[in-house]
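Late entry, evening session. Most of the bench is empty. Finally got around to the prediction I had been postponing all week. Sequence below, unchanged from the version circulated by S.P.
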Amino acid sequence: MKQVAVLIGAGSIGQAIVRRVAAGKHVVLADYSEQNAATAAKTLEDAGFECSTLRVDLGSKDDILTLVKEAQKYGEVTSLINAAGVSPSQASVEEILRVDMVGTAILLEEFGKVMAEGGSGIIIASQSGHRLPALPQEQNDALAMSKPEELTKLDFVQTITDTLKAYQYSKRCNVLRVAYEADRWAKRGATINSISPGIIITPLANDELHGPRAKGYLDMIAASPAHRAGTPDEVGDLAEFLMSSRGRFISGTDILIDGGTTASYWYGSLHALTKKLYSIMETVKLSNGVEMPALGYGVFQVAPKEAKRCVLDAISAGYRLIDTAQAYFNEEGVGDAVAECGIDRKDLFITTKVWISNAGEEKAYKSILDSLKKLRTDYIDLLLIHQAYGDYYGTWRAMERAYKEGCVRAIGVSNFQAGKFLDFALHVDVKPMVNQLETNVYAQQTGIQQWLNQFGTKTMAWAPLAEGRNGFFTDPTLTAIGKPYGKSPAQVALRWMIQRGIVVIPKSTHIERMKQNIDVFDFRLSDDDMKKIAVMNQHDTGNINFDDPNFIKYLIETYG
Protein backbone atom coordinates (compact mmCIF):
# COMPACT_ATOMS: atom_id res chain seq x y z
CA MET A 1 0.00 0.00 0.00
CA LYS A 2 1.24 3.49 -0.89
CA GLN A 3 2.42 5.68 1.96
CA VAL A 4 0.93 9.18 2.17
CA ALA A 5 2.41 12.44 3.44
CA VAL A 6 -0.05 15.22 4.23
CA LEU A 7 1.13 18.82 4.17
CA ILE A 8 -1.18 21.60 5.35
CA GLY A 9 0.21 25.00 4.40
CA ALA A 10 2.06 24.89 1.10
CA GLY A 11 4.58 27.58 2.00
CA SER A 12 8.35 27.46 2.06
CA ILE A 13 8.73 25.78 5.48
CA GLY A 14 6.20 23.08 4.64
CA GLN A 15 7.85 22.42 1.28
CA ALA A 16 11.30 22.25 2.87
CA ILE A 17 10.05 19.55 5.26
CA VAL A 18 8.11 17.50 2.71
CA ARG A 19 11.11 17.42 0.35
CA ARG A 20 13.07 15.69 3.11
CA VAL A 21 10.49 13.18 4.35
CA ALA A 22 8.17 12.36 1.45
CA ALA A 23 10.37 10.73 -1.18
CA GLY A 24 8.44 7.80 -2.66
CA LYS A 25 5.22 8.83 -0.91
CA HIS A 26 2.10 10.39 -2.31
CA VAL A 27 1.97 14.01 -1.11
CA VAL A 28 -1.42 15.57 -0.41
CA LEU A 29 -0.93 19.32 -0.50
CA ALA A 30 -3.63 21.23 1.39
CA ASP A 31 -3.82 25.01 1.50
CA TYR A 32 -6.44 27.71 1.96
CA SER A 33 -5.41 29.03 -1.44
CA GLU A 34 -5.95 26.64 -4.34
CA GLN A 35 -3.39 28.65 -6.31
CA ASN A 36 -0.74 28.26 -3.61
CA ALA A 37 -1.36 24.52 -3.46
CA ALA A 38 -1.19 24.17 -7.24
CA THR A 39 2.03 26.19 -7.47
CA ALA A 40 3.69 24.12 -4.74
CA ALA A 41 2.51 20.89 -6.35
CA LYS A 42 4.02 21.92 -9.70
CA THR A 43 7.35 22.69 -8.02
CA LEU A 44 7.40 19.35 -6.20
CA GLU A 45 6.25 17.38 -9.25
CA ASP A 46 9.07 18.92 -11.27
CA ALA A 47 11.39 17.55 -8.59
CA GLY A 48 9.98 14.03 -8.90
CA PHE A 49 7.28 13.98 -6.22
CA GLU A 50 3.79 12.60 -6.74
CA CYS A 51 1.22 15.17 -5.57
CA SER A 52 -2.46 15.95 -5.32
CA THR A 53 -4.02 19.13 -4.00
CA LEU A 54 -7.00 20.11 -1.91
CA ARG A 55 -8.34 23.45 -0.73
CA VAL A 56 -8.60 23.32 3.07
CA ASP A 57 -9.57 25.91 5.63
CA LEU A 58 -7.66 24.79 8.74
CA GLY A 59 -10.30 26.44 10.91
CA SER A 60 -13.06 24.21 9.48
CA LYS A 61 -13.62 20.78 11.01
CA ASP A 62 -15.54 19.68 7.92
CA ASP A 63 -12.56 20.59 5.73
CA ILE A 64 -10.19 18.65 8.00
CA LEU A 65 -12.42 15.56 7.92
CA THR A 66 -12.52 15.82 4.12
CA LEU A 67 -8.72 16.06 4.11
CA VAL A 68 -8.44 12.86 6.19
CA LYS A 69 -10.68 10.98 3.76
CA GLU A 70 -8.82 12.38 0.74
CA ALA A 71 -5.45 11.29 2.14
CA GLN A 72 -6.69 7.77 2.87
CA LYS A 73 -7.77 7.35 -0.76
CA TYR A 74 -4.09 7.16 -1.74
CA GLY A 75 -2.88 4.81 0.98
CA GLU A 76 -1.90 4.82 4.65
CA VAL A 77 -1.00 8.16 6.23
CA THR A 78 2.54 8.01 7.59
CA SER A 79 3.47 11.71 7.71
CA LEU A 80 1.59 14.80 8.82
CA ILE A 81 3.08 18.28 8.53
CA ASN A 82 1.10 21.31 9.61
CA ALA A 83 2.76 24.52 8.50
CA ALA A 84 -0.46 26.51 8.05
CA GLY A 85 -1.56 29.50 10.02
CA VAL A 86 -2.18 33.24 10.04
CA SER A 87 -0.04 35.94 11.62
CA PRO A 88 -0.88 38.88 13.91
CA SER A 89 -0.52 41.25 10.97
CA GLN A 90 -2.79 39.21 8.72
CA ALA A 91 -5.88 38.46 10.70
CA SER A 92 -8.22 39.38 13.52
CA VAL A 93 -8.14 37.91 17.01
CA GLU A 94 -11.11 35.71 16.14
CA GLU A 95 -9.51 34.39 12.95
CA ILE A 96 -6.19 33.63 14.64
CA LEU A 97 -7.92 31.67 17.40
CA ARG A 98 -10.16 29.85 14.90
CA VAL A 99 -7.33 28.78 12.61
CA ASP A 100 -4.15 28.57 14.69
CA MET A 101 -5.65 27.36 17.96
CA VAL A 102 -8.86 25.45 17.25
CA GLY A 103 -7.96 24.24 13.77
CA THR A 104 -4.65 22.75 14.87
CA ALA A 105 -6.34 21.01 17.81
CA ILE A 106 -8.89 19.41 15.48
CA LEU A 107 -6.16 18.42 13.03
CA LEU A 108 -4.15 16.64 15.75
CA GLU A 109 -7.22 14.86 17.02
CA GLU A 110 -8.51 13.63 13.66
CA PHE A 111 -5.19 12.54 12.15
CA GLY A 112 -4.33 10.87 15.45
CA LYS A 113 -7.19 8.47 14.69
CA VAL A 114 -5.75 7.33 11.33
CA MET A 115 -1.98 7.68 11.55
CA ALA A 116 -0.19 4.46 10.52
CA GLU A 117 2.18 2.56 12.78
CA GLY A 118 5.64 4.04 12.53
CA GLY A 119 4.15 7.34 11.35
CA SER A 120 5.10 10.77 12.59
CA GLY A 121 3.81 14.29 12.64
CA ILE A 122 5.19 17.80 12.96
CA ILE A 123 3.25 20.86 14.01
CA ILE A 124 4.93 24.19 13.23
CA ALA A 125 4.33 26.40 16.25
CA SER A 126 6.36 29.55 16.95
CA GLN A 127 8.89 31.08 19.28
CA SER A 128 6.09 33.55 20.04
CA GLY A 129 4.43 30.94 22.24
CA HIS A 130 7.56 30.94 24.40
CA ARG A 131 7.28 34.68 24.99
CA LEU A 132 4.32 34.22 27.31
CA PRO A 133 5.22 33.86 30.97
CA ALA A 134 4.34 30.63 32.70
CA LEU A 135 0.59 30.11 32.78
CA PRO A 136 -1.31 28.79 35.81
CA GLN A 137 -1.56 25.03 35.63
CA GLU A 138 -5.33 25.19 35.28
CA GLN A 139 -4.88 27.23 32.10
CA ASN A 140 -2.26 24.82 30.76
CA ASP A 141 -4.62 21.92 31.41
CA ALA A 142 -7.52 23.71 29.74
CA LEU A 143 -5.50 24.54 26.62
CA ALA A 144 -4.10 21.01 26.42
CA MET A 145 -7.18 18.92 27.12
CA SER A 146 -10.35 20.90 26.39
CA LYS A 147 -12.41 19.77 23.44
CA PRO A 148 -11.25 21.80 20.43
CA GLU A 149 -14.62 23.52 20.03
CA GLU A 150 -14.46 24.61 23.70
CA LEU A 151 -11.08 26.37 23.49
CA THR A 152 -12.41 29.78 22.47
CA LYS A 153 -15.04 29.58 25.21
CA LEU A 154 -12.40 29.48 27.98
CA ASP A 155 -12.69 32.58 30.17
CA PHE A 156 -9.07 33.63 29.79
CA VAL A 157 -9.17 33.14 26.02
CA GLN A 158 -12.31 35.25 25.68
CA THR A 159 -10.52 38.22 27.25
CA ILE A 160 -7.87 38.32 24.50
CA THR A 161 -8.25 41.49 22.43
CA ASP A 162 -4.80 41.89 20.87
CA THR A 163 -3.78 39.90 17.77
CA LEU A 164 -0.27 39.25 19.04
CA LYS A 165 -1.66 37.84 22.30
CA ALA A 166 -4.06 35.68 20.31
CA TYR A 167 -1.13 34.37 18.29
CA GLN A 168 1.00 33.72 21.37
CA TYR A 169 -1.76 31.83 23.15
CA SER A 170 -2.51 29.84 20.00
CA LYS A 171 1.10 28.74 19.63
CA ARG A 172 1.37 27.91 23.33
CA CYS A 173 -1.81 25.88 22.86
CA ASN A 174 -0.25 24.06 19.86
CA VAL A 175 2.67 22.91 22.01
CA LEU A 176 0.38 21.77 24.83
CA ARG A 177 -1.95 19.92 22.43
CA VAL A 178 1.04 18.06 20.96
CA ALA A 179 2.03 16.93 24.45
CA TYR A 180 -1.54 15.83 25.16
CA GLU A 181 -1.98 14.00 21.84
CA ALA A 182 1.40 12.23 22.03
CA ASP A 183 -0.08 9.57 24.31
CA ARG A 184 -2.97 8.90 21.93
CA TRP A 185 -0.66 8.81 18.90
CA ALA A 186 1.62 6.37 20.73
CA LYS A 187 -1.23 3.86 20.92
CA ARG A 188 -1.00 3.71 17.13
CA GLY A 189 2.79 3.47 17.19
CA ALA A 190 3.21 7.04 15.94
CA THR A 191 5.07 10.09 17.19
CA ILE A 192 4.05 13.74 17.19
CA ASN A 193 6.20 16.77 17.96
CA SER A 194 6.16 20.49 17.43
CA ILE A 195 8.82 22.88 16.21
CA SER A 196 8.85 26.52 17.30
CA PRO A 197 10.80 28.53 14.73
CA GLY A 198 12.05 32.00 15.36
CA ILE A 199 12.06 34.51 12.56
CA ILE A 200 12.42 32.44 9.38
CA ILE A 201 12.54 34.27 6.09
CA THR A 202 9.23 33.33 4.47
CA PRO A 203 6.41 35.36 2.90
CA LEU A 204 4.60 35.21 6.27
CA ALA A 205 7.65 36.59 8.08
CA ASN A 206 8.03 39.29 5.47
CA ASP A 207 4.49 40.44 6.27
CA GLU A 208 5.59 40.93 9.87
CA LEU A 209 8.90 42.53 8.87
CA HIS A 210 6.96 45.13 6.90
CA GLY A 211 4.06 45.42 9.35
CA PRO A 212 3.40 47.62 12.40
CA ARG A 213 5.96 45.79 14.54
CA ALA A 214 8.70 45.78 11.88
CA LYS A 215 11.24 47.89 13.76
CA GLY A 216 10.94 45.74 16.86
CA TYR A 217 11.49 42.53 14.92
CA LEU A 218 14.45 43.93 12.97
CA ASP A 219 16.03 45.19 16.19
CA MET A 220 15.50 41.76 17.72
CA ILE A 221 17.20 40.02 14.79
CA ALA A 222 20.16 42.39 14.93
CA ALA A 223 20.62 41.91 18.69
CA SER A 224 19.98 38.14 18.74
CA PRO A 225 22.81 35.70 19.47
CA ALA A 226 22.75 34.43 15.87
CA HIS A 227 22.54 37.98 14.43
CA ARG A 228 20.34 36.70 11.60
CA ALA A 229 17.03 35.19 10.70
CA GLY A 230 16.68 31.49 9.97
CA THR A 231 15.93 29.65 6.73
CA PRO A 232 13.24 27.12 5.83
CA ASP A 233 15.91 24.53 5.13
CA GLU A 234 17.14 24.71 8.72
CA VAL A 235 13.63 23.95 9.95
CA GLY A 236 13.40 21.18 7.35
CA ASP A 237 16.61 19.55 8.62
CA LEU A 238 15.25 19.46 12.17
CA ALA A 239 11.90 18.06 11.06
CA GLU A 240 13.65 15.37 9.01
CA PHE A 241 15.49 14.15 12.11
CA LEU A 242 12.35 14.12 14.28
CA MET A 243 10.32 12.26 11.65
CA SER A 244 13.04 9.70 10.84
CA SER A 245 13.98 6.49 12.63
CA ARG A 246 16.65 8.48 14.48
CA GLY A 247 13.92 10.53 16.19
CA ARG A 248 11.66 7.68 17.28
CA PHE A 249 12.45 8.20 20.97
CA ILE A 250 11.18 11.79 20.81
CA SER A 251 7.44 12.46 21.07
CA GLY A 252 5.22 15.06 22.69
CA THR A 253 8.09 17.53 22.60
CA ASP A 254 8.56 21.07 21.32
CA ILE A 255 11.94 22.18 19.98
CA LEU A 256 12.89 25.83 19.59
CA ILE A 257 14.88 26.76 16.51
CA ASP A 258 15.39 30.49 16.86
CA GLY A 259 19.11 31.26 16.94
CA GLY A 260 19.05 31.60 20.72
CA THR A 261 16.65 34.55 20.80
CA THR A 262 14.26 33.07 23.36
CA ALA A 263 17.09 32.26 25.76
CA SER A 264 18.40 35.77 25.31
CA TYR A 265 14.90 37.16 25.76
CA TRP A 266 14.51 35.62 29.19
CA TYR A 267 18.06 35.75 30.47
CA GLY A 268 20.31 37.74 28.16
CA SER A 269 20.84 40.95 26.25
CA LEU A 270 17.52 40.74 24.43
CA HIS A 271 15.54 40.86 27.66
CA ALA A 272 14.81 44.58 27.72
CA LEU A 273 14.27 44.85 23.96
CA THR A 274 11.93 41.94 23.50
CA LYS A 275 10.04 42.54 26.75
CA LYS A 276 9.08 45.87 25.27
CA LEU A 277 8.22 44.23 21.93
CA TYR A 278 6.06 41.45 23.30
CA SER A 279 4.44 43.23 26.21
CA ILE A 280 2.40 45.10 23.67
CA MET A 281 -0.58 47.12 24.74
CA GLU A 282 -3.83 45.21 24.59
CA THR A 283 -6.77 46.93 22.94
CA VAL A 284 -10.53 47.11 23.18
CA LYS A 285 -12.58 47.21 19.99
CA LEU A 286 -15.38 49.78 20.06
CA SER A 287 -18.74 49.16 18.41
CA ASN A 288 -17.68 51.05 15.27
CA GLY A 289 -14.49 48.99 14.90
CA VAL A 290 -12.07 51.55 16.35
CA GLU A 291 -9.30 49.90 18.38
CA MET A 292 -8.72 51.64 21.71
CA PRO A 293 -5.75 50.96 24.02
CA ALA A 294 -6.83 49.07 27.13
CA LEU A 295 -4.73 51.31 29.38
CA GLY A 296 -4.06 55.01 29.16
CA TYR A 297 -2.82 58.01 31.07
CA GLY A 298 -5.33 60.33 32.74
CA VAL A 299 -4.52 64.00 33.39
CA PHE A 300 -7.33 64.91 35.80
CA GLN A 301 -5.93 67.29 38.44
CA VAL A 302 -2.63 67.61 36.58
CA ALA A 303 -1.76 71.29 36.71
CA PRO A 304 -1.76 72.98 33.28
CA LYS A 305 1.91 73.91 33.66
CA GLU A 306 2.76 70.28 34.46
CA ALA A 307 0.61 68.65 31.78
CA LYS A 308 3.15 68.79 28.97
CA ARG A 309 5.93 67.26 31.07
CA CYS A 310 3.67 64.56 32.50
CA VAL A 311 2.25 63.55 29.12
CA LEU A 312 5.72 63.43 27.56
CA ASP A 313 6.85 61.22 30.45
CA ALA A 314 3.81 58.99 29.97
CA ILE A 315 4.42 58.65 26.23
CA SER A 316 8.08 57.81 26.85
CA ALA A 317 6.91 55.11 29.28
CA GLY A 318 4.79 53.52 26.53
CA TYR A 319 1.34 55.11 26.99
CA ARG A 320 -0.51 55.86 23.78
CA LEU A 321 -3.96 56.72 25.17
CA ILE A 322 -4.13 60.17 26.79
CA ASP A 323 -7.36 61.21 28.54
CA THR A 324 -8.08 64.91 29.14
CA ALA A 325 -11.16 67.17 29.26
CA GLN A 326 -12.17 70.75 28.70
CA ALA A 327 -12.82 71.08 32.43
CA TYR A 328 -9.27 69.99 33.30
CA PHE A 329 -7.91 73.18 31.71
CA ASN A 330 -4.84 71.33 30.44
CA GLU A 331 -5.74 70.48 26.83
CA GLU A 332 -3.03 72.88 25.64
CA GLY A 333 -0.34 71.05 27.61
CA VAL A 334 -1.54 67.73 26.21
CA GLY A 335 -1.50 69.22 22.72
CA ASP A 336 2.05 70.52 23.14
CA ALA A 337 3.19 67.06 24.26
CA VAL A 338 1.42 65.37 21.34
CA ALA A 339 3.08 67.76 18.91
CA GLU A 340 6.57 67.33 20.39
CA CYS A 341 6.70 63.68 21.45
CA GLY A 342 7.97 62.34 18.12
CA ILE A 343 5.25 59.67 17.92
CA ASP A 344 3.10 59.55 14.80
CA ARG A 345 -0.33 60.98 15.53
CA LYS A 346 -1.98 57.82 14.20
CA ASP A 347 -0.24 55.84 16.93
CA LEU A 348 -1.77 57.98 19.69
CA PHE A 349 -5.31 57.86 21.03
CA ILE A 350 -6.54 61.19 22.41
CA THR A 351 -9.70 61.49 24.51
CA THR A 352 -11.34 64.71 25.65
CA LYS A 353 -14.76 65.68 27.00
CA VAL A 354 -17.31 68.45 26.47
CA TRP A 355 -18.09 70.32 29.69
CA ILE A 356 -21.48 71.43 31.05
CA SER A 357 -20.86 75.10 30.26
CA ASN A 358 -20.50 74.16 26.59
CA ALA A 359 -23.73 72.13 26.49
CA GLY A 360 -26.09 72.64 23.58
CA GLU A 361 -25.59 71.99 19.90
CA GLU A 362 -23.95 75.21 18.76
CA LYS A 363 -21.84 75.86 21.86
CA ALA A 364 -20.72 72.24 22.00
CA TYR A 365 -19.70 72.18 18.34
CA LYS A 366 -17.68 75.38 18.78
CA SER A 367 -16.03 73.91 21.89
CA ILE A 368 -15.06 70.79 19.92
CA LEU A 369 -13.30 72.97 17.36
CA ASP A 370 -11.57 74.82 20.21
CA SER A 371 -10.45 71.50 21.72
CA LEU A 372 -9.02 70.43 18.38
CA LYS A 373 -7.03 73.65 18.24
CA LYS A 374 -5.77 73.31 21.83
CA LEU A 375 -4.85 69.67 21.29
CA ARG A 376 -3.01 70.61 18.08
CA THR A 377 -4.63 67.84 16.12
CA ASP A 378 -6.96 67.37 13.15
CA TYR A 379 -9.07 64.78 14.93
CA ILE A 380 -10.02 63.50 18.38
CA ASP A 381 -10.03 59.73 18.84
CA LEU A 382 -12.75 59.66 21.50
CA LEU A 383 -15.05 62.51 22.52
CA LEU A 384 -17.31 62.22 25.58
CA ILE A 385 -20.11 64.19 27.18
CA HIS A 386 -18.52 64.86 30.55
CA GLN A 387 -21.66 65.09 32.70
CA ALA A 388 -25.35 64.39 32.16
CA TYR A 389 -26.41 67.98 32.91
CA GLY A 390 -27.58 70.89 30.80
CA ASP A 391 -28.60 70.36 27.19
CA TYR A 392 -26.66 67.15 26.73
CA TYR A 393 -28.90 66.02 23.87
CA GLY A 394 -27.87 69.16 21.99
CA THR A 395 -24.25 68.35 22.88
CA TRP A 396 -24.70 64.87 21.45
CA ARG A 397 -26.05 66.24 18.17
CA ALA A 398 -22.92 68.37 17.89
CA MET A 399 -20.76 65.33 18.61
CA GLU A 400 -22.64 63.27 16.02
CA ARG A 401 -21.97 66.03 13.51
CA ALA A 402 -18.24 66.06 14.35
CA TYR A 403 -18.20 62.26 14.13
CA LYS A 404 -19.85 62.23 10.70
CA GLU A 405 -17.47 64.96 9.52
CA GLY A 406 -14.47 62.81 10.48
CA CYS A 407 -12.90 65.07 13.07
CA VAL A 408 -13.93 62.63 15.82
CA ARG A 409 -13.37 58.86 15.52
CA ALA A 410 -15.66 57.69 18.33
CA ILE A 411 -18.16 59.28 20.72
CA GLY A 412 -19.49 58.39 24.13
CA VAL A 413 -20.52 59.63 27.54
CA SER A 414 -19.11 59.96 31.02
CA ASN A 415 -20.74 59.52 34.42
CA PHE A 416 -24.07 58.37 32.95
CA GLN A 417 -25.40 55.95 35.55
CA ALA A 418 -27.69 53.09 34.54
CA GLY A 419 -31.07 54.82 34.36
CA LYS A 420 -29.74 57.98 32.74
CA PHE A 421 -27.65 55.94 30.29
CA LEU A 422 -30.56 53.73 29.20
CA ASP A 423 -32.90 56.67 28.67
CA PHE A 424 -30.24 58.50 26.67
CA ALA A 425 -29.14 55.53 24.56
CA LEU A 426 -32.72 54.78 23.55
CA HIS A 427 -33.22 58.31 22.18
CA VAL A 428 -30.08 59.03 20.14
CA ASP A 429 -29.14 57.91 16.64
CA VAL A 430 -25.48 57.04 17.19
CA LYS A 431 -25.25 54.91 20.32
CA PRO A 432 -22.56 55.77 22.89
CA MET A 433 -19.44 53.71 22.29
CA VAL A 434 -17.96 54.35 25.74
CA ASN A 435 -19.25 55.26 29.20
CA GLN A 436 -16.50 56.54 31.47
CA LEU A 437 -17.35 55.76 35.09
CA GLU A 438 -15.68 55.55 38.47
CA THR A 439 -14.61 51.92 38.38
CA ASN A 440 -12.21 50.05 40.65
CA VAL A 441 -12.09 47.02 42.93
CA TYR A 442 -14.35 48.77 45.48
CA ALA A 443 -16.75 50.24 42.88
CA GLN A 444 -17.02 47.56 40.21
CA GLN A 445 -19.94 48.90 38.14
CA THR A 446 -21.39 45.42 37.65
CA GLY A 447 -25.04 46.50 37.69
CA ILE A 448 -24.79 48.74 34.64
CA GLN A 449 -22.99 46.22 32.46
CA GLN A 450 -26.15 44.54 31.12
CA TRP A 451 -27.37 47.93 29.84
CA LEU A 452 -24.00 48.89 28.35
CA ASN A 453 -23.75 45.50 26.66
CA GLN A 454 -27.20 45.99 25.12
CA PHE A 455 -25.80 48.90 23.10
CA GLY A 456 -22.24 47.63 22.62
CA THR A 457 -20.91 50.32 24.96
CA LYS A 458 -17.51 49.80 26.61
CA THR A 459 -16.65 50.84 30.16
CA MET A 460 -13.77 53.22 30.74
CA ALA A 461 -12.57 53.50 34.34
CA TRP A 462 -11.66 56.73 36.05
CA ALA A 463 -10.14 56.41 39.53
CA PRO A 464 -9.08 52.81 38.71
CA LEU A 465 -6.79 52.84 41.75
CA ALA A 466 -9.65 54.03 43.99
CA GLU A 467 -7.73 57.29 44.59
CA GLY A 468 -5.85 55.37 47.26
CA ARG A 469 -8.88 55.05 49.53
CA ASN A 470 -9.50 52.16 51.94
CA GLY A 471 -5.81 51.34 52.22
CA PHE A 472 -5.83 50.38 48.55
CA PHE A 473 -2.05 50.26 48.06
CA THR A 474 -1.58 47.83 50.94
CA ASP A 475 -4.81 45.87 50.52
CA PRO A 476 -4.11 42.33 51.81
CA THR A 477 -6.18 40.57 49.14
CA LEU A 478 -4.51 42.41 46.26
CA THR A 479 -1.10 42.01 47.89
CA ALA A 480 -1.53 38.25 48.28
CA ILE A 481 -2.77 37.82 44.71
CA GLY A 482 0.10 39.86 43.31
CA LYS A 483 2.90 38.08 45.17
CA PRO A 484 3.21 34.99 42.91
CA TYR A 485 3.23 37.24 39.84
CA GLY A 486 5.69 39.72 41.31
CA LYS A 487 3.11 42.48 40.93
CA SER A 488 1.87 45.28 43.21
CA PRO A 489 -1.73 45.76 44.39
CA ALA A 490 -2.12 48.55 41.82
CA GLN A 491 -0.90 46.33 38.99
CA VAL A 492 -3.22 43.52 40.08
CA ALA A 493 -6.21 45.88 40.21
CA LEU A 494 -5.48 47.29 36.76
CA ARG A 495 -4.99 43.82 35.31
CA TRP A 496 -8.29 42.70 36.85
CA MET A 497 -10.19 45.46 35.08
CA ILE A 498 -8.41 44.93 31.76
CA GLN A 499 -9.35 41.24 31.85
CA ARG A 500 -12.96 42.38 32.35
CA GLY A 501 -12.66 44.33 29.08
CA ILE A 502 -12.56 47.70 30.89
CA VAL A 503 -10.26 50.51 29.72
CA VAL A 504 -8.28 52.03 32.60
CA ILE A 505 -6.68 55.48 32.87
CA PRO A 506 -4.49 55.64 36.00
CA LYS A 507 -2.92 58.99 36.79
CA SER A 508 0.45 59.80 38.31
CA THR A 509 2.85 62.69 37.98
CA HIS A 510 5.87 60.45 38.69
CA ILE A 511 7.41 58.58 35.76
CA GLU A 512 8.44 55.57 37.86
CA ARG A 513 4.84 55.10 38.99
CA MET A 514 3.72 55.55 35.36
CA LYS A 515 6.06 52.72 34.35
CA GLN A 516 4.71 50.48 37.08
CA ASN A 517 1.10 51.16 36.09
CA ILE A 518 1.65 50.21 32.45
CA ASP A 519 3.62 47.05 33.28
CA VAL A 520 0.52 44.83 33.37
CA PHE A 521 0.60 43.06 30.00
CA ASP A 522 3.08 40.33 30.83
CA PHE A 523 0.83 38.32 33.17
CA ARG A 524 -2.76 37.14 33.51
CA LEU A 525 -4.85 36.63 36.62
CA SER A 526 -6.34 33.18 37.09
CA ASP A 527 -10.09 32.64 37.25
CA ASP A 528 -9.72 32.09 41.00
CA ASP A 529 -7.88 35.41 41.40
CA MET A 530 -10.59 37.18 39.42
CA LYS A 531 -13.27 35.74 41.73
CA LYS A 532 -11.40 36.81 44.86
CA ILE A 533 -11.33 40.41 43.66
CA ALA A 534 -14.97 40.32 42.54
CA VAL A 535 -16.13 39.97 46.17
CA MET A 536 -14.30 43.19 47.17
CA ASN A 537 -17.11 45.32 45.70
CA GLN A 538 -18.37 47.84 48.32
CA HIS A 539 -20.43 50.43 46.46
CA ASP A 540 -21.05 49.29 42.92
CA THR A 541 -21.73 52.68 41.35
CA GLY A 542 -18.96 54.62 43.07
CA ASN A 543 -18.64 57.28 45.73
CA ILE A 544 -20.55 60.09 44.01
CA ASN A 545 -24.31 60.52 43.88
CA PHE A 546 -24.78 62.27 40.53
CA ASP A 547 -28.38 63.13 41.45
CA ASP A 548 -27.29 65.14 44.53
CA PRO A 549 -28.19 68.84 43.97
CA ASN A 550 -25.26 69.95 46.14
CA PHE A 551 -22.83 67.98 44.00
CA ILE A 552 -24.27 69.41 40.79
CA LYS A 553 -24.01 72.92 42.25
CA TYR A 554 -20.40 72.23 43.25
CA LEU A 555 -19.49 71.08 39.73
CA ILE A 556 -20.99 74.08 38.01
CA GLU A 557 -19.56 76.60 40.47
CA THR A 558 -16.10 75.01 40.52
CA TYR A 559 -15.56 74.23 36.84
CA GLY A 560 -17.79 76.77 35.15
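Two things to note before I forget:
The radius of gyration is 27 Å.
Residues 142 and 154 are 8 Å apart (CA to CA).
Will write this up properly tomorrow.
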